[in-house]
What does this fold into?
Amino acid sequence: MTLTRSLLACAAACALLTAAPSAFAQAQSGVDLTSIDKSIKLGDDFWTYANNEWIKAHPIPADRSRYGKTAVMVEEASKRTVDLIQDAAKGGSGDGKKVGDYYASYMDEAGIEAKGLAPLKADLARIAAIKDKKQLATVLGGNIRADVDALNSTDFYTDNVLGLWVSPAFDDTSKYAPFLLQGGLGMPDREYYLSDKASMVEARTKYVAHVEKILTLGGVADPAGKAKAIMALETQLAQASGSRADSADVQKANNSWTPADFAKNAPGLDWSAFFAAAKLSGQPRFIVWHPTLVTGLGKAVSGVSLDTWKDYLTFHLLDHYSNVLPKAFVDERFAFYGQGLQGTPQLSPRWKRAVGSTNATLGEAVGKLYADKYFSAESKAAVTAMVDNMKVAFEKRIDGLDWMDPATKGEARKKVAVLKVGVGYPDAWRDYAGYAVVRGDAFGNIKRSEEFDYATALAKLGKPVDRGEWVMTPQTVNAVNLPMLNGLNFPAAILAPPNFDLNNDPAANYGATGATIGHEISHSFDDQGAQFDSQGRLRNWWTPSDLDHFQKAGAALADQFDTYKPFPDLAVNGKLTLSENIADVAGLGAALDAYHASLGGKPAPVIDGLTGDQRFFLAYAQSWLGYARPAALRQQIITDGHAPDQYRAFTVRNLDDWYAAFGVKPGDSMYLPPEKRVKVW
It folds into this structure.
């Protein structure tokens, strides 16, 4: 968070951040006292103690798979955003007109219904015209799309067998390079195809039915037989795919291939035709993040019939664009992905989906409208000062490590010193001049957006790297660390109540927003980030003994999270979630240090009957007020690098000050003996 003087300095500048949503009843302390359930022993379940009364009063809405504090903030940002978009729809010019026209087109359900499948006619014909495996390679290459941030994404590609991510190379962060990522699966992860758990077997049955229904709606003959063949093809691709844990291992991702290597390592696919269609023929090398999938793709192209591949491409074309096709497609896509996989009872209103699509397509154009109204330049400067103070706290933690060699400390301090931090909104806005939005053409607007994003990515290849680049929009309630840029993004929408409020006592602001800032800084030093140096290069800057100590601490934290088991047959994956868990532990510790420093040696006041440290830790637990439907929780545990919110709040178990603040003792369920408390940074 920030030191006291920074809070005072931004009191006027951050006025727009002070109106808290009514869903949270924050007291003078900044802690929502009405959420606390005193029937729960806090030493047994601190998260439930801090949040249970709010949870009991707020069941998950019918159109959601999860709910909580972040969902409320997202809802508030969405309401603000739709007002801005609708104002833009009434007139204006330039990007504002594009925003309004895009939203209006998406909302035109009658127009979409009337067009039927006509917008897809050319693409369906392109698939139907495939006569040999070379033409198949051309279509597969032409379908490739661009990702924004593979290191922080939890989504693999679905209707594209491979995806392109343009980023600084692992060994040279001065220029952009092409990364190839695995895809090709319609379900969230390879485990949905390969696991013998009852929930995964059920998901497979539902998926085959979904494929059949989409093909039926598309007028495809023999949809049942073709659905089974498509499932078999995707299962073959799943068997070749890397696991989520492997995908998080950047050392396994560092595979540099020349164009000639593809023919040698992945025979079966005409790679020359593929790269020509993907407009990548001139690239001297690629970084292949998932080599087993690339090899498996070659085998699948050579071994699976051309007709099955054409059916596969037809299904994924229809499924991908379902939300801008007639209502029957919208309903079926939700029936599987919303109800079937996540247990969500009800489809969100069209306006919410339209806001999401507009944000995804014209994110910075909408973001500029959002930042202009809800986050001033003065606020940006003030919050940047807060981040700087958290950096100071982290540097002091590095200096205080008794196990780290001075040389390693020097490298770590250098990473913090040159960290590029973006607060609120980017310094330079994206230029959408090359993107054409046509009012009344919802399908075309999305397809042209994908083509525009891909062209934008291609244009960066071989060019100098922009370290000020953003991968999130200002209206996003989230934050991100970018290891290969050694940079952070803190969007405007997350720098708002109830996470941050100038009316709060500083302890609560440190416990919530301060911990978030510390978390993102700490990602530069998690099991992934610690492998990158101050320039973003994948380079070992550790002494052997320091690295051994660090890895042992990480292993202990992974073991700790492996013990959290929300289902009898499914536990949190400590290895998969390790990066986030390290960042939580280190970030929370740095935020607590910064809060203590802000007191200037004076004792913290008691407010609402709570000491300063008690307010700090309760605010932290309440910042993780999030809960999900069982199916959605299962999907998160299998596919997401973030542990469920409840267990992230359990991070407090590793801080000695938490025990002292609340008198947690042996015998309490959350108690860890001092030697078991993980201290990574």
User: Anything to note?
Assistant: The longest strand covers residues 162-168.
